[in-house]
Amino acid sequence: MNCQNCAAPLQWAPGSDVLKCQFCGSYRALAELANGVDAVVVLEEPTATPCPACDTELLTAAVDRIAAQVCPTCHGLLFASEAFAHLVRHRRAEYSGADRMPQPLDPDQLAGRVNCPHCKKPMDRHPYGGPGCQIIDCCTRCEIIWLDSGELAAIEAAPGRR
Fold first, then answer.
1. Cα 138 from Cα 148, distance rounded (Å)
2. What pLDDT is attached to residue 121?
3. Of the N and C termini of the chain, which has fewer Cβ atoms inside 10 Å?
4. Phi and psi, residue 31, nearest 5°
5. What is the spatial distance between Cα 35 and Cα 42, in angstroms, rounded to a whole number?
6. Contacting residues for 11 by C-beta, under 8 A, at least 6 apart
7. Average pLDDT over residues 71-77
């Protein structure tokens, strides 16, 4: 992502609310750049990590000041497990919209498998243990979580304790 003033690359530090231009000192708020159902800021830097779902190269991203990787094709999200847990706690605590009733789990969704983009072994597919009735993929060896597009939003807006 480039600076609107001088077209130099904007830099982001995980935990920061802004992208900063190292050349002219301009700032861009992450919140104004977030888009899509999961409110992701795509930072556009290639990661050399293949998407577990469609094999497209993932791009760097920020989700509520947390580093992630996003697929530009299927819009899935890859997080470190610890970052995902922090993000869910934060998103659910801050959520002020209407609760969205989750759909019942479809057992057929458990049948598919994706390979971990790091170790290339099949990821574990299971119902997320929190609210939202979502099926998530995780690799306990590499400590990462893969979410399909919209799963984060469904977890965030699910009814229950916040």
1. 12
2. 97
3. C
4. -60, -35
5. 8
6. 19, 20, 21, 22
7. 96
